[in-house]
Amino acid sequence: MIERKTELPQIFESFAEARQNGFLAMKKIKDSGKGVVGQFCTYTPLEIFMAAGLVSVGLCSTSDETIPEAEKVLPSNLCPLIKSSYGFAITDKCPYMYFSDLVVGETTCDGKVKMYELLAEIKNVHILELPRRQDTPEAKALWLAELVRLKERVEKDFGVTITDDNLRDAIRRRNIERRLLKELYELSTMTPPPITGLRQLQILFGSQFKFDWDEKVAEIQNAIDSIKAAYAAGERPVADTAPRILITGCPMGGVTEKVVKVIEEAGAVVVAYENCTGAKQLDRQCPEAGDPMTSIADHYLQIGCAIMTPDKNRFELLERLCEQFQVDGVVEMTLQACHPYAVEAHSVKEFMQKKGIPYLQLETDYGTADIGQLSTRAGAFVEML
Fold first, then answer.
1. Looking at CB atoms within 10 Å, which of 26, 32, 174, 178 has the fewest?
2. Sign of the Cα pseudo-torsion (93, 97, 98, 99, in order)
């Protein structure tokens, strides 16, 4: 039992520090001659890059460090994710952006689309035309054609041939990774949960910055086994009486951890994340039978997101997670000027009201000046529960 108690903090820190430590790993990857693809969105099919023998990395920045530099070009009332990502690109302060041989963007929102135009002046950029519907033959045909176009771009830029067998193997490996991360976050269906929401987020967010696939899945499995063993040995990091919170809304990680911290400092526990960092990208498996490109296209197009209209898949997942994790309240984290999620928040609130689940929307940015306000609102919400 003592061994497990000392091991768990090391495991959590390994994932929490993955993004920072990954900078050195990325340099080694480049020095070895491997190609690197940077992407911004959960809709980007990582299987295509894996099948090409490339390393992929997320480029969405989560700090306000370079926003003043970005605002010399971009409007100040733009989403902080967009400003931060562009700021890190133009200042060369993000090694992941710097080392990316190809940057893949997507037409999820107008702000990102226009930012990609500017980014293309300094980086090799490819844009995926993402349809705004998920249930029509035309949308499915467009998306499949876009992924074929991406596959051909990767083959051309990196001088490789991506076979169907390569793609099937990539689907199989990505499914293993999805299954393990889902198993990890589903540990929090237990009462009380075996880890805090902050620890869960650190693993979910940090896993994308571990670039050796075999080592990554081994570390995730080790984390699962260690958490289970510690729980069986009687460790209870969360009180039985802690209200159970689901977080939905914009992508989380980095400075937005402040939202999780104020919720848990108020005495609640975050048991589930519906957003891009969590269940949204991990809940389902990609079909391994049939034509691999069609399977990949169908799988990614069905991701629920506020940019889709209608967005029935997001609400279906929200309903299922609320029941599965027996949540006492839902908190929506909206980044300032993220119009799709800001508008859809009203529908989420009404949806939760019909289900009798208390709902709170917290709007924030990448700064820390609003922590006091967030704490006050989160504290009042938790006390109400």
1. 32
2. positive
